[in-house]
Write a structure and sequence with these properties.
The chain is mainly alpha-helical. The protein is 83% helix and 0% strand. It contains 14 helices and no strands. Helix 1 runs parallel beside helix 10 (311-345) and helix 2 (45-81) runs parallel beside helix 5 (127-156). The longest helix is centred in the first third of the chain and has 39 residues, at 5-43. The chain is globular, with a radius of gyration of 21 Å. It starts with a helix and ends in a 7-residue tail after the last helix. Its main location: membrane. It is a multi-pass membrane protein. The chain crosses the membrane at residues 49-73, 94-113, 133-150, 162-181, 201-220, 241-267, 279-302, 322-348, 354-375, 396-418, 424-445. This is Multidrug-efflux transporter. It is found in: Cell inner membrane.
């Protein structure tokens, strides 16, 4: 399919107009975790390590539940493009229902996390703190998933600004609560990693309340009557969200659990290695959040084109999304290579005794992270494009094979068997992400989703 230059520029502008606020929102959401890492790094290295391993478990569960929220986005985009207001409402409501059910079902994992982490060989001084952290973060999971559903509902309708600014406000609220609860200011006791978890609960509750009020009161959204008779089940719509959402959840957790498993492998090397890994992975993930924003933009634009039956616009939107993500990846690679060690140092107190050791190891990990920027961007964008055409089951199997059939075994062999340490484990990530990027892009452009 050949797209005229002028038309293609219009698609580029459309991707940027939708993708930039979405990327900003994802980045601001991610900064909630980054601020925890920075502030805990200034508090105590053991508390930092506990938050790193705890966050790995939390995000594995969160991303699994995120499948239902992500299913809402293409369903709403396609329905809205064909003026099916009832379908917009039905899909979003049942996305909320399934998110609540998931959060309740997985809470026992958070409660008994100490036993699980001990069995996985985590440092004994880290496990009790990580368990306390996770028991509170299990409570935060419910509002966090509801936030995701409402954000995807708004994104599919082109209402991205409110989610962006509410999430930015949440970052500032999180910093303030962390300052009080982690360090024990304003008369509160110093709670360390436990304080960070308490802050996260209140931040997520405040965010979901803000989004719900906007969705209920905005004049442009009243036509959807989203919360009217919310308690009534809609089994047909629930089945639709379930069928589309659970493969998305499995694919997401396949990737996130790979990173969680990497944290577990690095944790077996020692506390300092785990701290360096946690800092480097969060720096890398910050840029991934931007790719994810453009991936979401691709999902929405491809979903809208599908709803209109416009194959030409579908293909052009996909190409524009890929081009923007590729340019972003190239810029990121340069930043990682030139400034990786300096950025790692920002996460540590100048008085930290192990500061130089952590920075040295973190800088090496950032060099490895530069290698998979193109692959990581390609796989998340391709996954988003496939969701836009509601193709989720085959991508799920591709993700599972790439991350666990190639990425994890390679990381284990390079890092622990051959003794290459944390950099060797990260090389396994490169191979898994590269495989996923190639196969998912082939899946989209092979002729099944769009004629090239």
């Amino acid at each position: 399919m050949t797209v005229p230059v002028r038309s293609f520029r219009a698609h580029l502008r459309a991707v940027l107009a939708l993708g930039l606020p979405l990327a900003g929102s994802h980045l601001a959401q991610f900064l909630l975790a980054v601020t925890d890492t920075i502030m805990l790094g200034w508090y105590d290295v053991v508390d930092l390590a506990a938050s790193v391993i705890g966050a790995a478990v939390f995000f594995a569960m969160f991303t699994f539940g995120l499948g239902f929220a992500n299913a809402v986005m293409p369903l709403v985009a396609t329905a809205a493009a064909s003026d099916q207001d009832a379908e917009v409402r039905r899909a979003t409501r049942m996305g909320l229902w399934l998110s609540v059910a998931f959060a309740v079902a997985v809470y026992p994992i958070f409660w008994f996390s100490g036993t699980i982490l001990s069995a996985l060989g985590q440092p004994p001084e880290v496990v009790p703190l990580a368990q306390d952290y996770l028991r509170l973060m299990g409570v935060a999971l419910l509002p966090a998933l509801l936030v995701a559903v409402l954000k995807n509902y708004l994104a599919a309708l082109g209402r991205t600004q409110v989610a962006l600014w509410l999430t930015v406000a949440a970052v500032f609220l999180n910093v303030a609560l962390n300052w009080v609860l982690i360090f024990g200011n304003l008369g509160f006791p110093a709670m360390g990693v436990r304080g960070a978890a308490h802050a996260s609960v209140w931040v997520q509750v405040a965010t979901v309340v803000g989004l719900a009020l906007y969705c209920a009161r905005a004049s442009s959204l009243r036509r959807y009557t989203l919360f009217q008779r919310l308690w009534r089940p809609d089994w047909q719509a629930m089945g639709q969200v379930w069928r589309l959402g659970w493969p998305i959840g499995v694919a997401l957790v396949a990737e996130t659990a790979l990173f969680s498993a990497v944290a577990v492998l690095v944790g077996r090397l020692g506390t300092l290695e785990l701290a360096a890994h946690g800092i480097a992975i969060e720096i890398s993930a910050a840029m991934f959040m931007i790719h994810m924003g453009f991936s979401n933009a691709g999902t929405v634009l491809v979903g809208r084109a599908r709803g209109r039956g416009d194959t030409e616009a579908l293909g052009a939107s996909a190409k524009a999304t890929i081009l923007i993500s590729t340019c972003l990846a190239l810029v990121t690679m340069v930043i990682y290579v030139l400034y990786g060690g300096w950025v790692v140092g920002l996460f540590l107190s100048p008085d930290e005794p192990a500061r130089n050791q952590i920075i040295a190891l973190g800088a090496v990990l950032m060099m490895v992270a530069a290698l998979f920027q193109l692959a990581d961007g390609a796989q998340v964008v391709a996954m988003g494009l496939l969701r836009g055409v509601q193709d989720t089951k085959v991508p799920m199997w591709i993700a599972a094979f790439s991350y666990w059939g190639i990425g994890f075994p390679a990381g284990y062999v390079f890092g622990l068997v051959l003794g290459w340490g944390a950099p060797g484990i990260w090389i396994g990530l490169v191979l898994g992400l590269a495989t996923a990027g190639i196969l998912l892009m082939w899946r989209f452009w092979s002729g099944r989703a769009v004629a090239v």
